[in-house]
Amino acid sequence: MAARKLALAYLAGAILSGFAARAQAAPLQWGVDLGIEHSDNIGLSPADPMSATALIPSLLVAWQDQGARYRGALAGTFSYYHYTQGEIGDQWLGNGSGKFDWLMRPGRLYWAFEDYIGQEPVDVLRASTPENTQRTNVFATGPTLTLRLGSATELQTDLRYITSTANKTDAFNADRGQAAAHLLREIGPLSRLSLNVSGQDVRFREDALKPNDYRRYEAFLGYEYDGPRLHLQAAAGGSKLKFDDGRDFRKPYAQALGRFSVSARGELTFELDDRLYDAAEDLIARAPDPATFFDPLGGVNMRTTTISPDVYMDKEAQLGYVWRGPRLEARLGGYWRKQDFLTLTNFDQRAYGPALNVLYALTPRTSLSAFATRNVTRYSASAREDHLGYYGVAMGHQLAQHWSVGLQYARRKQTSTDPTQEYTENRVLLTLSYRPTGA
Hints:
The protein is mainly β. The chain has one domain: Porin (Beta Barrel). It has two helices and 20 strands. It has a 20-stranded antiparallel beta barrel. The protein is globular and about 60 Å long.
């Protein structure tokens, strides 16, 4: 629920920025929200709902910049939930990503720092309540060296130390060393090929998990095309895992993603994955992007990450379409996902569902929005199937140059073959927002 709560608060604040948010190109965009939210079933109970009201101050920030000796990016929402009844403990919730490169020798050598924070369920098989939420963090640092091998060819090498932690699931806590090399070749003004190899050594901090320590190797060919209407990235290769307990796995590696400008107002996006993943990689892949963070069509992401030490085979397909008119904007999308864990097979799952987000400028100062998502998740080991619907409407009105107010209603309802996992929740959120020029 933590990820959902952040998305809910963000959507109410995002529509307050109206259509002006995308027109700004300032390196720093930020805002402050003060919200009051009421839930009629904070614990997502099937039979004993408990109401709760929370006061929620939030900071939203997105930053991108580059200087002679640095480049950096930051995006995130950081909120404090104070529950007025006192029956639920207050919470700090954050969902963000930060990247900073120290350009030691511009064009040749830089040192990277990356940090990703979020909240995820402790047990993905249970409802995401405040008690079933934990903080996660992935930090990476190390050098990248680039060598020019000709007018159209370069070799890039990376070394990284990576640490992953969760404040409740100790099995996620691990240290990693990673080395990678990428041979890049420009094959035209709009396209290039790459040969990529990498190796990673993963060591868990819990003694009981030492047999699960592993080394992972990947090799793949990549292709990228960046044209005036079409952007395409594709990769194909293989992965190998060697566990300290003697287990050995070989799996395919395939990815493709792209976007196509159907018209001046419409854009089609897609993504395909068939590769090994782990929880740390998934948290990085889902991190907020500063380039689109204040986009009022950013949507509501209901996806969660299974925080565990295991590696899983991830097959996923996503398709989306965005249309932006002078007053009406809409995003329609859908996904299908299959996860097969190498060890913890009770987490094996299949999931799919559509999502719709609509924004309408009623007047230059007033916006209306609505969203709807429907997710179906099937757990292979238990034959359990959950159907989750999440719907909402919101209204935002600009009071003055920097001040806005928003009101949102959202409803979440889950039915399941396991009656203990069924629930209905209604939420109302009132938000006062401050946005300086450029946010």
